[in-house]
Amino acid sequence: MPCPYQTTNLDLTLCLPREKRIFRTPSGRELFLPHGAGEGLVITNFMPAMKLACQEGLVPGNSLPERLERLHAWGYEGIEFWGGGLKERLPEVQNALKNSPVRASTVCAGFRGSPLDADPRERERAYEDIKELLYVAADIGAVGLIFVPIFGAPRIPDLRPLASPEQLEFDLLCLLLDELARTAEKAGAFLLLEPLNRYETHFIRRLEQAVAVCEKVAHPHLKIMADFFHMSIEEADIPTAIRHAGQWIAHVHLADSNRLLPGQGHTDFKSGFAALKEIGYTGYMALECGVAGDPGVELPKAAQFLKAQMS
């Protein structure tokens, strides 16, 4: 089992349970202490470590157990699933996860319709699918469901001077999320709002805009997903944006500036990770990017690169 706790002043990692105390140094060396040993040792400032995850579609393998086994061997602790068709795969996914140390991090979209479509039938499709996927996410032990309110241009008419499309979208989204966040709470999952870059949406492109929605809805099961690729386009300063979003961030996507694996572009991950540590973030960071080359070679390299950036 991966060690979940890091101590900053001794630079060791403590693995529970207590009856078998295991300390791991930064170099990876494990130190085993029997119960009762090291009673005078004081370890303070425990910080749960951020965890690496990867989208299922990036991992080679003929079966989910094979993909999970590879992820574990390569240094990943979580796997992110596409929401489309996931309900039908529940028995397969639950059984595979039960026999693997790799956990489900999140469910990414996969719903029909659009929450901000002008057609009420499309909004209803999105609404019903999102509710269902929140329960699916909970059933596999995932943090929650990632969703984008709308892609592309506005679909709601411009009613200025009464209201702009963006104001109507904001009000409609908050109304919708008020109910969906309650469903998320009942399910035992989080609804994760994702800002996109300007080339993919006109609406909610920066973390601060997502925070405004979260503050308006004010429900503990509505959170934000921060994507390093989109932030590299939209945020003037990624660490500052992360610090300001603070408590609302509950998941992270990783891709470099060219939307390839981290380490293959020019994004400064180290400063971004430092900001995540400052806000106390201890959740998953999942790869959502292209893989140039052999995934069996490139995914382990990406994990090594990211862990170095976290140190």
Strand content: 15-25%
Q: Report the CATH C-level class of the largest domain.
A: Alpha Beta
Measured as a percent range, the helix fraction is 25-40%
In total, the number of domains comes to 2
User: Helix and strand succession?
Assistant: EEEEEEHEHEHEHEHEHHEHEH
Give the overall pLDDT as a whole number.
Answer: 89
Distance from first to last alpha carbon: 20 Å
Give the strand order of the largest sheet, numbering strands 1, 2, ... along the chain.
6-7-8-9-10-11-12-13
Largest sheet: 8 strands, parallel, barrel
Q: CATH homologous superfamily of the largest domain?
A: Divalent-metal-dependent TIM barrel enzymes
Q: Please tally the helical runs, counting DSSP H or I stretches of 4 or more residues.
A: 9
Unreliable stretches: 1-46
CATH topology of the largest domain: TIM Barrel
Radius of gyration: 20 Å
